[in-house]
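Appendix B.2, paired examples.
Example (i):
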Amino acid sequence: MVERSLNLVPASVMDYRARARRRLPRQIFDYLDGGAFAEATMAANVADLAALHFRQRVLRDVSTRNTATTVLGQSLSMPVVLAPVGFAGLMARRAEAQAARAAVAAGVAFCESTLSVCDLEEVAAASGAAPWFQLYVMRDRGVAEALMARATAVGVPVLVLTVDLPVVGQRYRDARNGVSGRPGRLATARRGLDVAAHPAWVRDVAVAGRPLTFGNLAAVMGSAAVPSDFQSWVAGQFDPTVTWADIDWVRAHWPGPLVLKGILDPDDAREAVARGVDGLIVSNHGGRQLDSVPSTIEALPRIVEVVDGRAEVLMDGGVRSGLDVMKALARGARAVMVGRAWAYAVAARGERGVAHVLRVMREEIAVTMGLTGLADVADASPDALVEG
């Protein structure tokens, strides 16, 4: 249906969240929207960004503002990368392909998750460009080696190794919805009723969006659907024995830039740099792993200080606007990754929603630059913020 009025177009990421909540079965929305334990860290990611204040500067020539940058050798129209989101293909029909097309059109990077519904090859073909690839290491190391070989063959420019998921955090929304653990008959019935109450989602995703499998893991799972007991499946498949020594193993199978995702502690950042990685992503997994750890914007400056320019530092967690992007850059990030923002948008409005969120973010970045006296996004520094 053609949207005839701008009033029908969501104005912000949170508008898209509200639409996604109505459109998705609760079990899927809560998987996307929820965090670990009491969700304190997830909330802090957003709140701590909101608590930062800009220094509004005047009488500077900001008639021309450059939002473009280079991240890990890739030219981007703005310092934004769409983060890997597992199960994204449950949010909308072939959601990863839709989001990747929007990212390429906007001139930013898209990062494909190991746990995506669309596989690497489908995303690359749909968007006309190879995505970044996020890797989880399975107990069968041959699976990870095969994934890295496929990523190389597709032309993936950056490998993102997630290091903060040796075990799955306690996600109580998933437990209440029967998504984790072994649901009984009542929970299974409630899940069925939840799906049946969302016929538009059933038509668009459950039927037209098939196959609903982990496309990148067909060699492991065969034709099996996405597992209903995700935590038990992860416990059986993911390798909790991965250590710093395995960085050399990854390097032996991956020729391009290597980034570690899930760094919060300065000592871990120091070790990562010593191991020769090309980048770090300051991340607490969107508050979905260990609760009561620092927000990413709080942790970021200490990581930047330790790295001292020897690797590129990105940040994710809580980023909902262009203002948030600029706050992260002011605190030392090279770029940010946004996850829930694009997932809400694709769930609510498909590729058009992701494109709209990216367009709004870029406009917000440009306006924020103008009102803080910055002509180039590369000039963002702590001086742009009111600290203390």
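Example (ii):
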Amino acid sequence: MESTATASKPLFTTKDLTRLLIPLAVEQLLLMTVGMADTMMVTTAGESVVSGVSLVDNINILIINIFAALSTGGAVVVAQYLGRREQENARSAAKQLLYVALLASVSLMAAALLFREPILRMLFGSISQEVMDSALIYFLLTAAAYPFIAIYNAGAALFRAMGNSKVSMINSLIVNIINIAVNAVLIYGFGMGAAGAGIGTLASRVAAAVIIGVMITRPTLQVYVDNLFRPALQWRMVRFILRIGIPAGIENSMFQVGKLLVLRLVTSFDVGVDLAVAGSAVAANAICNSIASVINVPGQAVGLGMVTVIGQCMGASDHGQAVGYTKGLMKTAYLSLGLTSLCLFFAAPVLVPLFNLTPATAVIATQVLRWCAVFTIVFWPMSFTLPNALRAAGDAKFTMVVSLLSMWICRIGMSYLLGSSWGLGMGLLGVWLAMFCDWVVRAVVFFIRFLRGKWKNHHVI
């Protein structure tokens, strides 16, 4: 890891960064495995169930991204207060984060439970009844888990802000054990398909929320929450959190909305576009997303670590260390993602058959994954890891605007141009190439923003 470029005492040693990043990488891998396990385990029930589960997972990722954005806002505020050595304010911000996360999650759960079928039909159009039935039951069960996911995300973000990512890593391990165990019993033992996967997800999320909710109340922690059941909203703290959380939430949610709009295009692919069966495009896209998300884990871990590291540097008004740590962490991201991407490129033909896909689906999935590996090595860290340094400094509005423009113009617009039958007719590969164009644009703009240094002039607290 690169050392900081200033003469001041380093806020984080190499050992501190290692303790932060390694558990974060394991945690992110374990969290990815939850959705991936659902997709893999329901393959025994047929492609219609796989498609139904994968469609709902795209909606759930949208919701989880909103929770993650709020948690990022809270983590930035807490980290900056810790950088200032203002622990009392850090504890107050932590409590307000939990209130905001719980309120948002209950509202989103209610909307999902009441309107899940209209939402599915609006987003995905005329999918088959078999796919719709699986999607409806899986949506019902996973939506009930939203408040527990929000509590877990907030608690995990608070531990990360303190530089302690081991707690959330262990919690993620528990989530996986419960999810896979319940899935195995209900899917393989009772043949419950999508319902079994949904119950497994719900049970694991409840357990995770209870565990981290209890742990964050321990008075021995640097930042802890007390008197949680005596609501006392502090609007000043809430504004600080939302100053980062709202732009990040809009960015994350619109990003996922863009993916859903593109997925609607994927569900429309027919025999003449790309694959032998209409449902195969959805299944191939789901598998590619699951595998690609796993190889991005190191970059995501470094990005989460940046919120803590750069947040504390900016709170301490040490811009030199903020720049130095960002450069060092970006090197780490590139090295680790380079390794995982190379593994994916050569292992794709072996990984894809594990999902019991039809031969036609397996061919296109392998092709897409190899393209993904190439673009990930070059552009992914600059597109998605670097912006977290800007957000941790308070430059969240800029990252939001850039991400939204790039998403609508490149990811959505070019998906229809490259993938649809009235465009170049490249099918699923065209959709993914459009996504790669989005990465390129983000990478260039965020890199220029970092070099110019305007992000250092922002204030959060």
